[in-house]
Design a protein that fits this description.
67 residues, alpha+beta, SH3 type barrels, five-stranded antiparallel beta sheet, 2 helices, 18% helix
């Protein structure tokens, strides 16, 4: 729950194009990327992953601002 609470505080930052974001840890390898687009109607962000330069779509709540 600590991860989710931290994320909710940074929601408005995560949706900003160009923001460096990290995936909420779900027991997998941490992933990082940059916000490319935000679609308010679906609450999804397009992310350019740092690990392989792929573009993916995911729910905003799965990401937080990297420190």
């Amino acid at each position: 729950m600590k991860e989710l609470a931290r994320h909710e505080d940074s929601y408005n930052q995560v949706i900003q194009v160009g923001a460096k974001i990290c995936k909420v840890n779900e027991g997998y390898k941490n992933e990082a990327g940059f916000t490319e687009r935000f679609v308010k109607e679906t609450n999804k962000i397009q992310i350019r992953l740092l690990s392989n330069n792929y573009l993916i779509w995911d729910d905003v709540l799965n990401w937080y601002i990297c420190k």
